[in-house]
Amino acid sequence: MMIKADMHIHSYNSDGTYSFDTIIEKAKESHTQIISITDHNCLKAYDDLSYKEDDVQIIVGVELDCVWQGIYLHVLGYGIDLEKPDFHHFVEKNNEKLEQVNIELLKKVMKDHPECSLEDYNEYIYDQKKGGDGNFFITLWIEDYLSRYGIVLGFIRSIITLIHV
Predict the structure, then answer these.
(1) What is the pLDDT of residues 93-113, one digit of tens each?
(2) Dihedral of the CA atoms 163, 149, 113, 161 (nearest 10)?
(3) Contact, 56 vs 49, CB < 8 A?
(4) Is the pTM of this model over 0.85?
(5) How far is Cα 18 from Cα 32, in angstroms, rounded to an integer?
(6) What does each C-alpha distance from 109 to 89, 114, 152, 154, 161 come to in angstroms?
(7) How far is C-alpha 87 from the geometric centre of its chain's CA atoms?
(8) In angstroms, rounded to a whole number, what is the distance separating the alpha carbons of residues 137 and 99?
């Protein structure tokens, strides 16, 4: 018997558009037996893990954004013990570092675009209908904020600007 699995799913807590419950329903509809929700730098999808594994087995996962030797990477991790506060703390610290990347990028952009400001950015509210809660992927939120001013950097250009300048 062939087993169908999807080990790289994002919920609306990252850059996906579905809730945990909707992801489970979609998995059932497609006869997927094993899934892992691997949101970017976020374990929120598992906060209300009241689902009882009958039709779909869940392997707890996460996708961590990181820079290693000047290369921007996404690292997938599976089998995470949600009872371990150390890992939750690690993910929170990673998010704080990624937010600092957004702030540094914004400071660079502000040199050429004074209409942007840290205060305005901090008050900015991300539209969840675009996918995600705005506190996830390294530059998606900052790029959405900057697009309000007609500023389009592109993800790769943003990262290269931060790493090499």
Answers:
(1) 888 887 887 788 888 888 888
(2) 10
(3) no
(4) no
(5) 16
(6) 30, 8, 10, 13, 10
(7) 16
(8) 9
